[in-house]
Amino acid sequence: MRRMPGRFATVGTVARKAGAWKFVMGDRDSDDVLKDFFVPDYILGHGSERVGDFSHAPACPVIVFINSKSGGQRGGDLIVTYRTLLNKNQVFDLGEIAPGEVLRELYKNLEILKQDGDPLASEIQKRLKLIVAGGDGTVNWLLGVVSDLKLSEPPPVATVPLGTGNNLPFSFGWGKKNPRIDRQSVMSFLNQVKTAIEMKIDGWHLVMRMRALKEGSCDPIAPSGQTNSLNAFQQVFEPDPSYMDGFHKYCGRFWNYFSMGMDAQVSYAFHSDRKLHPEKFKNQLVNQSNYLKLGCTQGWFCTSCFHPSSRNIAQLANVRILRRQGQWEDLYVPRSIRSIVCLNLPSFSGGLDPWGTPDPKKSHERDLTPPYVDDGLIEIVGFRDAWHGLILLLPKGHGTRLAQTSRVHLEFKTRAADHTYMRIDGEPWRQPLPFEDGSVTVEISHAGQAKMLAPPSCRSKSLPIT
After folding, report:
1. Is 230 exposed, middle or buried (0-12, 13-18, 19+ CB in 10 A)?
2. CB crowding 401-413: b at 16 or more within 10 Å, else e
3. Under DSSP, is residue 119 helix (H, G, I), strand (E, B) or coil?
4. Which residues form the DAGKc domain (predicted)?
5. What's the rounded Cα separation, in Å, for the pair 418 and 433?
6. What does pTM read for this prediction?
């Protein structure tokens, strides 16, 4: 049987004692509580010891993914705590191994064990849950991997807020402050995961097609200054009529939001500065302060002075949406809008809700429905500048509500700009555009659903069960 990549030494073993399973963590017995989360080594592909019967199947077996570079560099400390409490081999550092590699090998091993009649493998597969600790981009990465694997029983995902904005964890009730990393706090979180409810969340597919530039590359440029380093948005080379005709095709997926314009530009500057000077970004409060300062230096508060009007959304691209009746129509975007957000969850920019709660009368007049996370619709919101964004701090504050739709089509205008800034779930990039030929389109459409875990009370709402 093929072994899962041996990144870590084995510290958790399963021993047969008095006719029952006894979990041993190093030289000491695990707490009874921790047995519920423990995954034996042979299930993970480490070693070949198997036993046909067992007296205790873990109630909530987990696989833990942690971005060691997230949370002001606190991710590494969190890894240490989880590996102390659980089998070291069920806790993975995303800086060392990609989640797709782990899950493909795990599920391959589970299938082999199930075919051999191993009952524990079947129970673990049924009850398995994933935990991911990192920023919104890290969560996006894992959700995309789970979706692409097309598993018959995809595991639900619990999120640990370990980034700057933490919009995804906040939307599902896990908070937005970076967590405590001590043993007791982690055990408390594990117990919440065990009792959490499952919710579905819509995924959204983004496809951009553009003609190759006459000079230079049209690949998205990550904040590090490199290309092709984004998890959420990458070039694809599958056969496509437009691609074969000299076009390039890029695909991405988002679960919370796609944004374009000034807000993405500020986010790009923040991530660039953090990669150049990581020593300045040691905790969440400092990170948020630095983000605000960059918003000022980038002109987000004085856009009329610093931001070219040619990059305002209406001057940059034509936007079309698909109405519920199945008809496409042009979306009116005020000329003052410098940032546009296609939003799936009620959290943006560190927990603010750009859509808010529309007046029932206006909702009826505009054919708007409550913003559910699994209704196949996204909300489109516009912002003029950072001062406009500060309205969200008010009890009933909101951005400029533009539309609700199931599909969006953007077509960039010829010679509008030589580049723009885009962002998917906290992951920004600088997008070069062909200045002479405006054959650039971006299409957003529904891309299935994923399972999330949430405490009984969270701000995200699902469609009512009828």
Report:
1. buried
2. bbbbbbbbbbebe
3. helix
4. 57-210
5. 5
6. 0.82
Of the candidates 75, 48, 136, 62, the residue with the CA atom closest to the CA atom of residue 103: 62
Element of type H or E holding 270? helix 262-276
Answer left, alpha or beta for residue 46, where phi above 0 means left and psi between -120 and 50 means alpha.
beta
DSSP secondary structure code for residue 68 in this structure: T
User: What pLDDT does 336 receive?
Assistant: 86
- Per residue in 29-70, pLDDT (tens digit) is 445 678 999 999 999 988 655 544 455 789 999 999 999 988
Distance of CA 307 to the CA centre of its chain: 29
Apex CA 126: angle with CA 120 and CA 127, to 5°?
90
**For residue 165, is pLDDT > 60?**
yes
**Hey, what are 379's tokens?**
């909300």
**E strand or H helix that includes residue 99:** helix 99-115
Residue where the block lists tokens 């856009």? 303
Q: Which residues contact 206 (CB under 8 A, 6 or more apart)?
A: 233, 251, 252, 253, 254, 258, 424, 442, 443, 444
Helix, strand or coil, per DSSP, at residue 132: strand
How many C-beta neighbours within 10 Å does residue 386 have?
22
Confidence category of residue 416, pLDDT binned at 50, 70, 90 = confident
Strands 62-66 and 91-93: parallel
**Rounded to 5 degrees, what are φ and ψ at 62?**
-130, 150
Both structure tokens of 327: 């008809």
Largest separation between any pair of C-alpha atoms in the chain: 77
Tell me the residue type at 273. Answer: D
Sheet holding 20-25, edge to edge: 12-17, 20-25, 28-29
- Return the number of other C-beta atoms located less than 10 Å from residue 376's C-beta: 13
Residue 224 has what DSSP assignment? T
Q: What spatial distance separates the first Cα and last Cα of the chain, rounded to whole Å? A: 47
Please tell me what DSSP assigns to residue 19. Answer: T
